[in-house]
Amino acid sequence: MKLITAIIQPDRVDMVREALLAAKITRITINRVTGHGRQAEEELYRGEIVAPSLIPKVRVEIACNDDFVKVACDAIIQAARHGDGKIGDGKIFITPLEECIRIRTGDTGKDAI
């Protein structure tokens, strides 16, 4: 099992959600977050270095079985990328998911996802 975390532009949320649904991935969590990567660099303002502003982003989280990792990532990449790609399109992180428990039934592991 893996946890896929994607940080994407807010204007791409609907496209990413639709791409995931088309790929038969229906269980997702979406949060509004702020942050910055390469697109925000330190600025010089009145002779002092000013920290970059935080930029609105969206975090998409998907807990899935190993078989769906590539499918989910491909759907996110195709839907989140602007044209041929530009700075700020986002990132995808894939981490091992040690355990999953469905609260309602007590199912664990792959059965819970």
Overview of this protein structure:
With 113 residues, the chain is an alpha+beta fold. The chain has one domain (2-111): Alpha-Beta Plaits, CATH 3.30.70.120. The protein has 2 helices and 6 strands, in the order βαββββαβ. It has helices at residues 13-22, 69-80; strands spanning 2-8, 29-35, 43-45, 48-50, 55-64, 90-96. The strands form 2 sheets. Strands 2-5-1-6 form a 4-stranded antiparallel beta sheet, with helices on one face. It has a two-stranded antiparallel ribbon with strand order 3-4. Helix 1 (13-22) runs antiparallel to helix 2 (69-80). It is elongated and about 60 Å long. The N and C termini lie close together (9 Å). The mean pLDDT is 91.
Task: Summarize it.
This protein is 19% helix and 33% strand.
Domain module tally: 1
As an assembly, this protein is single chain
Strand order of the largest sheet: 2-5-1-6
Any idea what the CATH architecture is? 2-Layer Sandwich
Low-confidence stretches: none
Relative strand content:
25-35%
Name of the CATH class: Alpha Beta
Structural class: alpha+beta
Could you state the order of secondary-structure elements as H and E?
EHEEEEHE
Total number of beta strands: 6
DSSP helix fraction: 10-25%
User: The CATH topology is what?
Assistant: Alpha-Beta Plaits
Question: What is the averaged pLDDT score?
Answer: 91
Q: What characteristic shape results from the CA principal axes?
A: elongated
